[in-house]
């Protein structure tokens, strides 16, 4: 239960889709001129992420990852199809989006009227594919957690687009320098909001870890150097294991 | 250029400045921001997109008369995904460390709006050669912004370029650091990319008044 709660808040605030990893920026910038449309798109993103991330989790678990085909029989245990994940994930997403569109149109015309126009846009929203790819690279353990991850990162995206749409509606009345109007000021506001969201970084770490996290953000040069070394070590280790995998 | 007619040359020149995919068309922002903390990653990303967009535009343009318009999105996605898998495998084989830095963002070239946008807007209606030039031009326009952002973020944030220390050594206090210069840790964190791009847009639009939006 605790890990669900942690993942939920982590995906909304710390690893926010827009502010921490810049996913779905295109539609975020294009569809954030009015709050009403932003809400529609945000809801559609939550919905599609909640459907596609668990789907792709199942695909990854039982088809793509190293040794995933073991359930077919021991002779299939050596296959590693993970190089196919891009094409399978995007095919799943495109199909699901189409399917969701048809189902929603059939059973709930009112929801279709509010979500409908956004659904085709979503197939090429990087937040959706990014959700699935991050699910894969962070090795989320269970189907329940994958669903949780989909929903909560969708909510994070929703919050971000809602906030920027509200700000953009207001900023129209401000005296922004002419060359910055529109796109430029939106970028800078998003950057400032991102800095704000960075402060959630220490939210979920308790005790000594928290101190370490704070130190890491404040004393730039020194810890950076250490962090780089650690990173390098990690990369080296990964490289070794990768080379082993190749040799096998 | 003797090689290209004037119209064809404009296909390459326009996206570099006045019709830049990032600052004017607002396409392909996601990857532009996420991986620009280092110059090297920016350059590799720009080359990957150049490859995918150049080849992809030609492929789509060759198939433009046989793709049924109802399923064209899926066809486009499959073409891009195939090309991106090639890029990803090549990176994993020859630059494993770098492919770790880029992590999921190589995969996200698939949903990079520049690619789908150029397929939709250009390759579906033009011949292969012109589509190729258009792809190259747009990818270069995208790459230029990436390199500019990467340059400033790495120089100001870590004092290095391509990983080489150009401003001296911050630990031993040599070079500029001897005069009390400090790296700006702010440039390393992700939101700084947004602000740098915002400033690029500002500079570009104040030089060319025709680009200013009227809100």
Description of the structure:
- Chain A: Belongs to the NqrDE/RnfAE family.
- Chain A: Composed of six subunits; NqrA, NqrB, NqrC, NqrD, NqrE and NqrF.
- Chain A: Its EC number is 7.2.1.1.
- Chain A: Residues 222-233 have a biased composition (Basic and acidic residues).
- With 248 residues, chain A is mainly α.
- In chain A, 72% of the residues lie in helices and 0% in strands.
- Helices cover 59% and strands 2% of the residues of chain B.
- Chain B has a two-stranded antiparallel ribbon.
- In chain B, helix 1 (6-13) packs parallel to helix 7 (128-158), helix 3 runs antiparallel to helix 7 (128-158) and helix 7 (128-158) packs across helix 8 (191-207).
- The model of chain B has no long low-confidence stretch (mean pLDDT 81).
- Classes of the chains: A mainly alpha (248), B mainly alpha (215).
- Chains A and B meet through helix 2, helix 4, helix 7, helix 9 and helix 11 of A and helix 2, helix 4, helix 5 and helix 8 of B.
Strand and helix layout:
The complex is a heterodimer of chains A (248) and B (215).
Chain A: H1 2-14, H2 25-30, H3 35-64, H4 85-107, H5 109-115, H6 119-122, H7 126-137, H8 143-171, H9 183-198, H10 208-218, H11 220-247
Chain B: H1 6-13, H2 29-34, H3 39-63, H4 72-94, H5 96-102, H6 113-121, H7 128-158, E1 160-161, E2 164-165, H8 191-207
Antiparallel strand pairs in B: 1-2
Helix pairs in contact in B: 1-7, 3-4, 3-6, 3-7, 4-5, 7-8
Instruction: Summarize the main sheet of chain A.
Output: none
Write down the overall mean pLDDT of chain A. 76
Write down the domain tally of chain A.
Answer: 1
The assigned structural class of chain B equals mainly alpha
Shape of chain A: globular
Report the principal-axis shape of chain B.
Answer: globular
Q: Approximately how much beta-strand content do the residues of chain B carry?
A: under 5%
Sequence of secondary-structure elements of chain A? HHHHHHHHHHH
Question: Which value, in Å, is the CA radius of gyration of chain B?
Answer: 19 Å
Question: What's the assembly state of these chains?
Answer: heterodimer
Count of helices of chain B? 8
Derived structural class of chain A: mainly alpha
- Look at the structure and give the mean pLDDT of chain B: 81
Q: Describe the biggest sheet of chain B?
A: 2 strands, antiparallel
């Amino acid at each position: 239960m605790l890990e669900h709660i942690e993942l939920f808040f982590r995906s909304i605030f710390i690893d926010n889709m827009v502010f921490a990893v810049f996913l779905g920026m295109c539609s975020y910038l294009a569809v954030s001129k009015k709050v009403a449309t932003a809400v529609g798109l945000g809801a559609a993103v939550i919905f599609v992420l909640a459907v596609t991330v668990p789907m792709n989790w199942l695909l990854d678990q039982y088809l793509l990852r190293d040794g995933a085909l073991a359930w077919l029989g021991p002779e299939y245990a050596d296959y590693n199809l993970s190089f196919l994940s891009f094409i399978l994930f995007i095919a799943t997403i495109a199909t699901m989006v189409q399917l969701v569109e048809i189902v929603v149109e059939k059973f709930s015309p009112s929801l279709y009227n509010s979500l409908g126009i956004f659904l085709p846009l979503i197939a090429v929203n990087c937040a959706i594919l990014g959700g699935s790819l991050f699910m894969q690279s962070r090795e989320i353990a269970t189907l329940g957690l994958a669903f949780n991850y989909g929903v909560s990162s969708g909510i994070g995206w929703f919050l971000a687009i809602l906030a920027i749409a509200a700000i953009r509606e207001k900023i129209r009345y401000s005296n922004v320098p002419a060359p910055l109007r529109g796109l430029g000021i939106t970028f800078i506001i998003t950057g400032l909001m991102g800095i704000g969201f960075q402060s959630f970084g220490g939210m979920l770490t308790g005790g000594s870890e928290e101190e370490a996290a704070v130190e890491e953000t404040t004393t730039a040069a020194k810890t950076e150097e250490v962090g780089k070394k650690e990173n390098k070590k990690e990369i080296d280790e990964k490289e070794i294991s990768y080379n082993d995998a190749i040799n096998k | 250029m003797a090689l290209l007619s004037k119209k064809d040359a404009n296909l390459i020149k326009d996206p570099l400045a006045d019709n830049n995919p990032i600052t004017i068309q607002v396409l392909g922002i996601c990857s532009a921001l996420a991986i620009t903390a280092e110059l090297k990653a920016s350059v590799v990303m720009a080359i990957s997109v150049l490859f995918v967009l150049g080849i992809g535009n030609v492929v789509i343009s060759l198939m433009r008369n046989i793709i049924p318009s109802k399923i064209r999105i899926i066809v486009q996605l499959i073409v891009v995904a195939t090309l991106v898998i090639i890029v990803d495998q090549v990176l994993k084989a020859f630059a494993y460390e770098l492919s770790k830095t880029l992590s999921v963002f190589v995969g996200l070239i698939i949903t990079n709006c520049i690619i789908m946008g150029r397929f939709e807007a250009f390759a579906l209606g033009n011949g292969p050669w012109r589509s190729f030039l258009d792809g190259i031009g747009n990818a270069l326009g995208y790459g230029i912004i990436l390199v500019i952002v990467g340059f400033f973020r790495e120089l100001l944030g870590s004092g290095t370029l391509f990983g080489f220390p150009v401003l001296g050594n911050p630990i031993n206090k040599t070079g500029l650091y001897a005069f009390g210069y400090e790296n700006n840790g702010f440039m390393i964190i992700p939101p700084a990319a947004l602000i740098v791009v915002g400033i690029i847009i500002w500079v570009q639009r104040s030089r060319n008044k025709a680009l200013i939006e009227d809100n």
